[in-house]
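From the shared-data thread, chain only:
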Amino acid sequence: MPERFTVTTPIYYVNDVPHIGHAYNEVATDVLARWHRQRGDDTWMLTGTDEHGQKIMRTAAANGVSPQEWTDRLVETAWIPQLELLDIANDDFIRTTDERHKVGVRIFLERLKEAGYIYHGEFEGHYCVGCEEYKTPGDLVPGTGEFEGQQVCAIHSRPLETVREANYFFKLSEFGDRLLALYDERPDYVQPEHVRNEVRQFVKQGLTDLSISRNTFDWGIKVPWDETHVVYVWFEALLNYITANGYGVDEERFARRWPATHIVGKDIARFHAVIWPAMQMAAGIEISDHVFGHGWLLVGGEKMSKSKATGIEPKQITEVFGVDAFRYYFMSAIAFGSDGSFSWEDLDARYHSELANGLGNLASRVIAMVHKYCDGVVPDVEIDADIATLVTDAVARAESAIDAFQIHDGVDAAMSIVERLNGYITEQAPWVLAKDVAQRERLAAVLASNVHGIGAAAIMLAPVMPGSAQKLWTAVGGEGEVAAQPIQRAHEWRGTGRVTTVPPLFPRVEQA
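Structure, as C-alpha cells:
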C-alpha cells in the first residue's frame, strides 16, 4: 500500500488579486505534493478560495456588483490563472460558494450542535474586517498617521470595529487541556518549533468560547437551524479541508484522503493549530497530520500586502525570469519556516550564478563534450566512486529535508551535485584527456559520471522546476517523463542513452 499524503494550502480570501506571498505558499505546497507523487505516495493536493464574509460583501458593493459576481470574476480572472501561471499541479480546487462545501458545513454544524458544543449567547468584541477576526489587546499596535492615538490591527494598520451581537458560540474553552496534550504527545504536529511555542503559549493563557455566527449581514452559509444567522467566515472556511474530500457524503473517499497536512502562513497558524483541531475533536474526526506555519515574504521590511502597496504580482517576475526560475528562487533562497526578504537584485544574482552559470552551463558543457568525444552516446562505464557517493548522499539528504518540510535544504541537496560537478569538470579536464588516446577510458568515466549526476539532479529538481527538469532529463538521454522517476532512487539512474542539444535552459537576463 502506498503512503497517503494529503496536503493543503489555505483557501485564499478573494477580496483582491493574488501576489507573490500567495504564490510562495502555493509553490511550496505544490513542491511537497510533487515530491510525494514522485516517491509513489497516494498524494492529493487541495487549494481554493474563501469567498464569504463582511469584507467580500463590502468590496463587492464598492465595485457595484453582487458578492457572487465579484468572487466569480476574481476566481476566474486571477486566482485560477495564477495556478496555471505557476505550473501548480493541484488535484482539487474548492470554493466556499460550492454546493459541496455548503452541504458539508451544515452537516458538521448539526453534528457539533447534537454533541452539545454549540450554544446561543450575547457577544461584544473588537473586530478587524480585513482579517475577518475578533482581536485581543495583544493583537493591536499604536496607530500612525491618520490613526495616531488609536489602537490598530497589527496586520492591516486600521482601527477595529466594535461588534455587539447575539450569536451562536462554539465551546472552544473546553478544549484547552486536550490541545496542550496534543502538542505534547505529537511535537511534530505544529511546525516549526517557534510557531508551536507561540501556539502553546496562547492556549496556556486560557481559551474563550468562539462566536461562530453573524446576523448583521447575509453573505455566507446559513446556520441550518436558524437562517437569520450566517456562519462566521473563519469557522466555515476551515471546514473546506474536509468538505472537499467527501466529509459526511462520501465516507470511502474521506477515509482515503483524511487526515491532511496544512501549509499556512504563520499569521493564521493559530486558527489551524488551535481552533481547527478543537473543531475536529468536537466532531470526533481524526486530527490533521501537521500544521506548518511558514514565514512571511517581506518587501522593504514589511509583510507582502496589497493594502500596504508591497504586493508584487507573480507575472511581474515570471515575465522576466520564467516560471521555473520563480519557483526555484523562492524555494531555495528562503529557509522554509522563516521570514524572507525579496529583492530584484538577489533574484537576478541567484538566477545567473546558480541557474544560468551553474546548472545551465554545466548541462550545455557536458552535452557538448559527449557529442564531440563520444558521438553523442553516453559511455556505458562505471561511475566514479566519489561522484556516485556524492549523488547517493544528496538524495538521502533531500529526502530527509522534505520529510521535515525543509524545502530549501532539499533544493540545496540537489544543487550540491551541480556545484560539485562543475568543480569536477575543472579538475578532470576532459578536453585534455581527449587529446591522449591512452586516457580514453578515463574520459569515458568522467563524462558518464557527469551525465549520471546531471540526470539525478534533474529527477530531484522535477518537483521544483518541472519544465526545466524535463528538458534537462531529455537532453542527457533520460527516457519518458522525469516526474515518473522514483525520486528516492534518483541515485540509481545510469545514463547510457544519447544526449541531445537543447537551447539554453536559463538564458541570460539583461535588466533594464
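The two ends are 53 Å apart (CA to CA).
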